[in-house]
Amino acid sequence: MPVPKSTVENSPRKLLRDVVLEKMLTAIQDGTLQAGERLNDDELVQWLGVSRTPIREAIAKLVDYGMVEMEANRYTRVATPTRKEYDDAYQVLFGIGELAARWSMPRFTDDDVTAFGRILDDMRAHAAAEDRAINDDVERTVMFLVERSDNELLLKTTEPLINRAQFLRIGEPEFVYWDVAQVLDGLRAAAKGRDGEAGAAIIRGLGRGMAEHLATVRGSDARS
What pTM does this model have? Predict the structure, then answer.
């Protein structure tokens, strides 16, 4: 029989700049590249094993994400997260989650309901264990809803925002909103009922609760 043709050539290939971007994102988020650290072209070339061009393209994207700051002829460095930036990012993230729930839940298939339920199960387990992975679960929830909203612009807006939110969390490790577990049954019911308005209302309330939680924690810090 004839030899089958390889499918490799038809598979999507990542651009070199995207590979570099992923590596730099991971390095910033796990603390390998720390806030305020200067990014030197020669050192990055040696570390990543690529030319300057994809590195500079990746850095430009990181600047767009707010994770790197640069000033011509002075410095290129990892940005230092601030509380205001953290608040702003999560306010927008919950707002997107509300909108995405309204658009996506009426479109849910049975498989979507099952997959969404697994995310909620993870969130409940992490809340019970007081595991900070619950922050990742919140972001997974928003991304899941966005991906099923059938809105390409919303998806393109959300992807860099989640990267930025993960970066900003580095500077705010103490802020975890454990009470998110209280809304999980409501989100599950909204998903099963394909009720976008109910899902959106729950996420809107979750965003308000997160803001109140942050205000309380920071008020306590200021008084201590």
Answer: 0.79
